[in-house]
Design brief:
The structure is a homodimer of 214-residue chains.
Chain A (H helix, E strand, L loop, with lengths): L2 E5 L6 H8 L6 E5 L2 H14 L3 H22 L3 E4 L2 H9 L3 E4 L2 H5 L12 H11 L3 E6 L19 E3 H5 L10 H8 L2 E6 L3 H8 L7 E4 L2
Parallel strand pairs in A: 1-2, 1-5, 2-4, 3-4, 5-7, 6-8
Antiparallel strand pairs in A: 7-8
Helix pairs in contact in A: 2-3, 6-8
Chain lengths: 214, 214
């Protein structure tokens, strides 16, 4: 497959549904973030201090849950635990949504911490599939400073190396390191505007940020 | 095993941990309710109206998540997807916490609706294991009327048949029907008082409600 589109948990609900509907029939597999379910886990974790492995596994199950629910609302989409079945669905013109827990359980490749979120996990899966990664989120991309602040400007393109020193952004802390390690790029696009996502997928210009790890 | 103890999601946090700590070394397997994670699913469902199968499967994954987190906090407890491994852990003196998604995926025996919650699912599993069921919750048992109302009295014992006409109680709507179908009993006990749970398990008297389906 050509693209993995990670649909941020912040889009979950109608935005995620509309975005995914526009992806049916394209060479795309979707992975969902954990959204408010994962945020609730963070609250539990602050209160109870679980091991990083327990929260890591639990957060991945939140991605499974939102994937199941999202697939349920979209005609032509189906949720799969298996990459093989996901590819088969794609070949048949359907939109596969990967429930990542089983794939990520076996090789279990990434650090267990809140620094690794569905962004980095999606990059790992995209890399495994030799697919490109697009992260759909609820802001237009990466900004020169917090988007809510005066003078914050959208960055069209940034190297993963530069991102490492960027502090908190709309993507997780490990993504930059992994992009460098995998020599990969990734696009950050506002998923509330499906036409931007489609533009990027079709190789056209769109408002977004390209993070370059090559 | 002799007992399945369902630990209500409302106990999740320190109450659930303390209760489970008191169960280590006893002939008990624990199953967790879905707690606030499942409540969040209900909110999503109200907003987006998923199919009953999607919410059913998702709610069971919430039980898995709280099971993983609970096991993480308890010395001598371990979480398992497999009943066989859970039994093995019990034989070794550990407290198994069942993550029910895989077991419930195969036979998939119960109606998919919010009427079936972790109460009925736990009864189904207990029945399969020929074990007794104790439901630990955050109230003392079943009351003559809403516990918060004046004059509400705890019921020591009630037939499952009578429970069917009882309206909303601290257990789910299908439990009574299943108890009749399986010719089983079940105890509703306040899990904030582990000593009551231990008393019931040891065959002694305790403040609780026995629901009789025999």
């Amino acid at each position: 497959m050509e693209w993995v589109v990670k649909v941020g948990g912040s889009l979950f609900g109608e935005y995620a549904v509309k975005l995914c509907e526009s992806l049916v029939g394209r060479d795309v597999m979707v992975i969902c973030g954990g959204g408010n379910l994962a945020n609730l886990l963070r609250d539990y974790d602050r209160e109870m201090e679980f091991s990083s492995t327990a929260t890591h596994k639990s957060a991945i199950l939140c991605m499974d849950i939102l994937g199941i629910l999202l697939a349920d609302k979209i005609k032509g989409a189906e949720a799969f635990y298996s990459l093989k079945l996901a590819q088969k669905a794609l070949n048949n013109g359907n939109l596969p949504i990967l429930l990542p827990s089983q794939f990520l359980n076996q090789p279990d490749p990434l650090e267990h911490s809140w620094k690794v979120t569905s962004d980095s996990l999606s990059l790992y899966i995209a890399h495994h599939l030799k697919a490109k990664l697009l992260i759909a989120t609820d802001v237009d991309g990466i900004y020169t400073r917090e988007p809510s602040h005066d003078g914050a400007e959208l960055i069209k393109s940034i190297s993963a190396k530069k991102l490492l020193n960027f502090g908190e952004t709309s993507v997780d802390e490990i993504l930059g390191e992994l992009l460098l390690q995998f020599k990969s790029d990734c696009y950050i696009v506002n998923g509330k505007h499906p036409e931007r996502v489609i533009s990027v997928i079709e190789g056209r210009n769109a408002e977004c940020t390209l993070i370059g790890g090559i």
